[in-house]
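Table S4 entry, Enoyl-[acyl-carrier-protein] reductase [NADH].
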Amino acid sequence: MSISLAGKTYVIMGVANKRSIAWGIARSLDQSGARLIFTYAGERFEQSVRDLVATLDGNHEIILPCDVTDDASVEQCFAAIKEQAGSIDGLAHCIAFAKTEELAGNFSDTSRDGFLLAHNISSYSLTIVARYAKELISEGGSIVALTYIGGERVMPNYNIMGVAKASLEMSVRYLAADLGRQGIRVNSISSGPIRTLSSKGVSDFNTILREIEEKAPLHRNTTPEEVGDTAAFLFSDMSRGITGETIHVDSGYHIL
Ligand SMILES: CCCCCCc1ccc(Oc2ccc(Oc3cccc(O)n3)cc2)c(O)c1
């Protein structure tokens, strides 16, 4: 891999299993020589994260719980990172959730608590994580978040998650404006659909994958490795002039 992140440390939030996009990012950064810190939500993921991390080249020892819906949990997580690592060079936010019943049917039937839950986990979490991470991120650091085109235009069944992603993408721009004076860049990767644990929550997912193969300019679906390599670029100095940006890694689908 041409990009070197040797001597750099990144926090990766949201690895659930080997299919996670967060895991694709982890593998690319590991290949680029970075030291990685992992956080997981809920101890049911701890063992699978530990087992996966053991397969990487580098020895990434810091693996911590972090419930982004709990301010104290986020504060304790970053206090532990400060204590165990000192400073970091960036963070990958790969966290989202919405109730499955809100990811199908009529958008007008969205419930108040379904709306709030989706925004709490899928959008506000980036802002509170950035608030604590900015104290640890060195000059020249970089934050990367994951989004989907359903936050820019209507994609059937994506519903409330699309509204939350629109909020996330605008949060990326406001955070870029705020943290730029500290030399911290904030960008998002808009990934094409990838089969993950999360995509099981979206009805009719297979139809979308087929549509991409038929219509996307590259006529193939997106892979976690492609997203991982773009993340490595956004963490590297090769992207030092880019902030507040959304890069589409989607075989070109967004131009249609
Ligand atoms: C109609 C659009 C089909 C392509 C969707 C691509 C996609 C797949 C997964 C994505 O991430 C999530 C994350 C959590 C999520 O909520 C879930 C996931 C599983 C179970 C559950 O109860 N909620 C739904 C999507 C995402 O943001 C975007």
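The chain has one domain: 9-248.
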